[in-house]
Amino acid sequence: MRDLILHNPRCSKSRETLKLLTDRGVELEVVEYLQQPLSKVQLREVCALLGKKPLEIMRTKEALFAELGLSKDNGYSDEQWIDVLASHPKLLERPIVIYRGRAAIGRPPENVLTLL
């Protein structure tokens, strides 16, 4: 996967993470994932790069999670969680930075410095 940040410009942590990296001269493609949702294949790749299961990169405290009747304990398979993320990109944790074949979640923003 190419060097990029999965970015939501309305999110302060996402903006802080992007600034932290650009201030250090890191060039990334900015992907506004709410406008350009990831495919299921891309979501699987992000999970693999992060070393996390789909549920672990999901915003489970987001109101939409409850509105959809979702629960962390509902017994969904990883593939079912990928389906949820593909259908509802708002539930994807943010920001996620992919850089030189590795990935990190920018919460806190300084987490992504491990990629440099």
Please trace the helix and strand order, writing H or E for each element.
EHEHHHEE
Query: Termini separation (Å)?
Result: 16 Å
Number of helices: 4
Strand order of the largest sheet: 2-1-3-4
CATH topology: Glutaredoxin
Q: How helical, in percent, are the residues?
A: 25-40%
Give the mean pLDDT: 97
The largest β sheet comes out as: 4 strands, mixed
Low-confidence stretches: none
- The total tally of domains equals 1
Structure characterization notes:
By secondary structure, this protein is an alpha+beta fold. It has one domain (4-115): Glutaredoxin (3-Layer(aba) Sandwich). 33% of the residues lie in helices and 14% in strands. It is built from four helices and four strands. The chain has a four-stranded mixed beta sheet with strand order 2-1-3-4, with helices on both faces. The chain is globular, with a radius of gyration of 14 Å. 27% of the residues are buried.
